[in-house]
Design goal:
It is a single chain. The protein is α+β, with helices and mostly antiparallel strands. The strands form 2 sheets. Strands 1, 2, 3, 7, 8, 9, 10 and 11 form an 8-stranded antiparallel sheet that branches. α4 runs parallel beside α8, α4 packs across α11 and α5 packs across α8. The longest helix has 14 residues. The protein is globular.
């Protein structure tokens, strides 16, 4: 049962901005629209932008201990209707953010557009933030062997398994951080594979001006329906394209609605058919795609999440302080607003707080 609300902190529902205002805010500035994508990327590297709005974003989640609200997580969230129109907007949803690993479906589609023939578990792994479980590591090594690639070519950093339970098992076995174990290794393997196939430089496959990364840049813009606002470097070393939350939700919607056989639809179908390769055995993305057929879901670091339902409705949000503990409760509440319910939503939304090993509170959605 939800913990009682502190009487000093009444909850209120933030009001969404009018759709006409949202559309006006989402239009690129004229000075940006006159440049080519390559010029934009160069200019933006020397003129950093920020996803943080001067307006304080609304509270999306509360930390409630023993009936007392001891903390709050603010952020921004957008929900799109089946026709792609903005149905709900909380906070600043048209400012650029780094979607982090929520961009991976678009990166995988870029690899397909470049000519790599991937399908099934291999394509799902190319779009993954995998948990580092044995079946993830085994398939990465298999793919490297299939394309004649040395694991040393991977430029993602050595790491431990992303999943905490798997990490403990991994360390207990005496294993050390490894590039194959890093959660982005499937994506990096796919990038290397197409570069080897096309004769593109392997040493610079992460350079934003590399032929592969220019293709991915175009895929991101096509899917989001807006220009990339900034190019940064992700935690794995790959180029990271900034788009708005509206653009991110629109991108996921476009993958679900894409025609069969297109790169976008192939990625969506592989992820939905093999969700355990996208995430892992104990991850919300896996649960949601497995238990709500046709759903496409992908989280990103710094508490980003994007989801598209098979009927075209979609959502995207970011917790401003990057607190991953708020992801589940906020995602579950957003799914409920979209009419998705059942045990999987309750499972995703459950975030108990403990005191002396027993449950004394929770993290809960506040909208």
């Amino acid at each position: 049962m939800p913990a009682p609300q502190s009487p000093e902190q009444p909850r209120s529902r933030p009001q969404p901005e009018p759709e006409s205002q949202l559309r006006a805010q989402s239009q690129p500035q004229a000075s940006q629209g006159s440049r080519s994508p390559r010029t934009d990327r160069s200019a933006l590297r020397s003129a950093p932008t920020s996803a943080l709005s001067p307006v304080v974003p609304p509270v999306l989640a509360e930390v409630v201990r023993s009936g007392f609200v001891e903390g709050r997580h603010r952020g921004s969230l957008v929900v799109l209707a089946a026709d792609g129109a903005v149905e709900l907007a909380l906070g600043e949803v048209t400012a650029p953010v780094f979607p982090r690993s929520s961009n991976k479906p678009m990166q995988a589609a870029g690899v397909l557009r470049a000519g790599l023939d991937l399908a099934g578990e291999r394509l799902a792994l190319a779009a993954a933030s995998h948990s580092g479980e044995p079946f993830h590591r085994d398939l990465v090594r298999t793919m490297l062997d299939e394309y004649g690639l040395d694991p040393a070519l991977l430029q993602c950093p050595p790491d431990l398994p992303l999943d905490a339970e798997e990490r403990d098992t991994y360390l207990a076995s005496g294993a050390a951080p490894d590039r194959v174990t890093m959660n982005c290794s499937g994506k990096h393997t796919a990038m290397l594979a197409i570069c080897a196939q096309r004769g593109w430089p392997l040493e610079t496959y992460l350079d934003p001006e590399h032929p592969l990364q220019r293709i991915i840049h175009k895929v991101v813009e096509d899917a989001a329906g807006e220009p990339v606002a900034a190019v940064g470097t992700d935690g794995c070393g790959a180029p990271l394209m900034a788009i708005s939350l509206v653009g991110l939700a629109r991108a996921f919607r476009s993958f679900v609605a894409a025609e069969p056989g297109t790169a976008e639809r192939r990625v969506a179908d592989a992820m939905r058919a093999h969700p355990e390769y996208v995430a892992g055995s104990r991850r919300a993305d896996t649960w949601l795609m497995r238990e709500v057929p046709g759903t496409l879901s992908k989280m990103g670091a710094e508490a980003v999440q994007a989801v598209a339902l098979p009927d075209g409705r979609a959502l995207a949000f970011k917790i401003e302080d990057g607190a991953g503990r708020a992801l589940g409760p906020v995602l579950a509440r957003a799914l409920t607003l979209l009419g998705v319910d059942g045990p999987v939503v309750d499972r995703i939304g459950r975030a108990p707080l403990l005191g002396a090993g027993r449950e004394v509170g929770e993290i809960r959605a506040a909208f």
